[in-house]
Specification:
By secondary structure, the chain is α+β, with helices and mostly antiparallel strands. The protein has ten helices and 15 strands. The strands form five sheets. It has a six-stranded mixed β-sheet, with helices on one face. The protein has a three-stranded antiparallel β-sheet with strand order 12-7-13.
Length: 307
């Protein structure tokens, strides 16, 4: 093996292809042609002396040798980046790019503004913000940090609890004028409900009442949607009653375009957590953004920080 051919650039290309399993996706991510990605892989395999990847018409997968080599490459690249940060001192923390994934509506309405403030403080740090409500594979997608609402199942990530997102039952004044205002939870089945199609069990509404007692009522309606911003529009348009995160509708409540109904009853709060890829947690710029978001997230309406 000619060790001079085992470059960091070729290692990075191999790691991303191994994680994403798709050459064209990695080429787009790295801003190079697919032929360049293919050449990097071929040259690295020639230098190492064993096949690292097996290729089919649909997917690229690691060989047994590739899996072992991948684990070593990840550690080497992490150490190289951390060494660069430490050598540059304070300047090392304030340069480079961070990739963050966030629940879509929260990202549009609030997290994007926090990122603007973060970049005002650290102007040399780039941020790639990906907005999705799907539970993506952070390593495969090259994400450093993810903000997620709801219960989590990925125990391989570092977790930082950010708080609880308080929810309300809301409706537009025009809807309430036309259909009447529910006086008790048992009145809700007679109303149009705005439901989330990507949440299991949305045909039943669970409410927390006085003293913490829970009430479950059937919850139906003609409009279901899989995006919080569309649900917000449906509520404002007077299409029905719906549960909503406080941060999703705080401005509409302040403007009188929505009203809280059944104020003594509310859907249980939802946990908000930050997931951090362990191999990226030691990078200085990633730590800066993690701490910044953890500090500022409590300023979002309805987010109750952990005690």
């Amino acid at each position: 093996m000619d060790r001079s051919d085992v470059t960091l650039e070729r290692m990075r290309t191999f790691v991303r292809v191994a994680e994403r399993g798709n050459l064209s996706a990695v080429a787009r991510e790295l801003g190079v042609g697919q032929s360049t990605v293919t050449r990097h892989l071929r040259e690295l395999e020639d230098a190492v002396g064993v096949p690292l990847l097996s290729r089919t018409t649909r997917r690229v997968a690691m060989t047994d040798e590739g899996s072992r080599y991948y684990a070593d490459c990840v550690q080497i690249l992490r150490l190289v980046e951390q060494a660069g940060d430490e050598a540059r001192g304070t300047r090392g923390a304030s340069a480079g790019t961070i990739r963050i994934s966030c629940t879509a509506a929260l990202g549009v309405l609030h997290i994007s503004r926090l990122i603007f403030a973060f970049q005002d403080r650290y102007p040399d740090i780039g941020v790639d913000l990906s907005l999705t409500d799907e539970r993506i594979d952070l390593v495969r997608e090259g994400v450093d940090i993810a903000l997620r609402l709801g219960p989590l199942t990925d125990s391989s990530m570092k977790l930082r609890a950010l708080g609880q997102s308080r929810r309300l039952l809301v409706a537009a004044p025009a809807y309430l004028a036309a259909r009447g205002r529910p006086a008790v939870p048992q009145d809700l089945p007679g109303h149009e409900g705005i439901r989330m199609s990507n949440i299991a069990g949305s045909d039943t509404l669970v409410l927390q009442g006085p003293g913490g007692a829970r009430v479950s009522v059937p919850f139906g309606g003609r409009f279901r949607v899989d995006h919080g911003l569309a649900a917000r529009e449906a509520l404002v348009a007077g299409r029905g009653i719906g549960p909503a995160h406080h941060w999703l509708v705080d401005d509409l409540l302040a403007a009188g375009r929505l009203e809280v109904i059944l104020p003594d009853y509310a859907p249980p709060p939802i946990p908000l957590n930050m997931l951090i890829v362990p191999e990226r947690a030691g990078i200085a710029r990633v730590r800066l953004l993690v701490d910044f978001l953890a500090e500022r997230i409590g300023g979002i309406p309805g987010i109750e920080k952990p005690r």
